[in-house]
Amino acid sequence: METLRTRAPAKINLTLRIIGRRTDGFHDLASLVVFSGAADLLSLTPDAALSLTVKGRTAAAAGPDADNLVLRAARAFSAEVPGAQLGAFLLEKRLPVAAGLGGGSSDAAAALRLLGRLNGLAPDDPRLFAAARATGSDVPVCLDPRARLMEGVGDVLSPPLALPPLAGVLVNCGVAVPTAAVFRQLGLAPGGAFDGPSLPAVLPSGRAKLVAAIAAVPNDLEPPAVAVAPKIAEVIDRLAAQPEARLVRMSGSGATVFALTDDCRAAAALARRVLAAEPDWWVKPTILR
Question: 50 and 20 share a domain?
Fold first, then answer.
């Protein structure tokens, strides 16, 4: 069979409420998730032993290949589909690592999609979701990368949402922010809860009203992430000062920050200005959907 290929798009948390910490140590959350045009690339060559090769601009920061979530997902798939055909994966890393973009989770979900295609599984086969859930908290929402509400520990997903495409810019200053460190800084004790606003039950269909609804619900991990990596605050302030920016917020547990704009032209202008001032930063104008 020929080599199979797919994209692993960046996951963006437009909102991220930490509802509380469970007694098992995990955190319940509520998040409006969309996906970006920026992505890693993954290919699978059948009729080969299970393996992974990682290349690309951020490959070195991705850590040991043997510990990559792509291989963890493949092993979870094998557990759900005994006798499944596997193969050799090639991952081209383009997204920043430990950046709040769900890059590793999206890579793992891409691996499951390719393995599903190789083994003749339907995209909605429950074994794919089971393997995704066994691989990591963010993997299920990345399995079918479309806008959704994500709740629980990441395993409770709404149907896909018909949101208007949102133009914006993603900016990462190169500071890796480990998720565990951010949650430690959050300091929520087991059984503890956070109060805060929620998204409306029915999201507005217009872009301006949707952005206003998003702006009213924070990312609860932004303050602890800034405490861990103060450079994030510099990025937020830099983007918020740009005339094109309509909403500026950190994604996930950081350190990537997004700025929503009125349209693609405004996003491109903002990105050019930031990149000219900070050529070492990762800056991507994109559409979020």
Answer: yes
86 and 109 together in one domain: yes
Both 142 and 180 in one domain: the answer is: no
The total domain count for the chain is 2
User: Annotation-wise, does 20 bind a ligand?
Assistant: no
d(CA 81, CA 79): 6
The yes-or-no answer on residue 138 being catalytic is: yes
Q: Please, what are the averages of pLDDT over each run of 10 residues along the chain (289 residues)?
A: 95 98 95 98 96 92 84 98 97 95 97 98 98 97 98 97 97 94 96 94 94 98 98 98 98 97 98 98 98
CB 154 within 8 A of CB 29: yes
Q: What is the pLDDT of residue 63?
A: 79
Q: For position 149, which CATH number holds?
A: 3.30.230.10
Catalytic option among 11, 93, 220, 284: 11
pLDDT confidence of residue 32:
98
Instruction: Confirm or deny that 206 is annotated as ligand binding.
Output: no
The answer to whether 61 is annotated as binding is no
Is 103 annotated as a binding-site member?
yes
Q: What angle do CA 218, 233, 286 make, to 5 degrees?
A: 70
Residue 267 lies in domain: 166-288
Looking at the fold, whether 72 and 185 belong to one and the same domain comes out as no
Of the listed 40, 93, 107, 138, which one is catalytic? 138
Query: pTM (2 decimals)?
Result: 0.96
Burial environment of residue 176 by CB neighbours within 10 A (0 to 12, 13 to 18, 19 or more): middle
Asked if 195 is an active-site residue, the reply is no
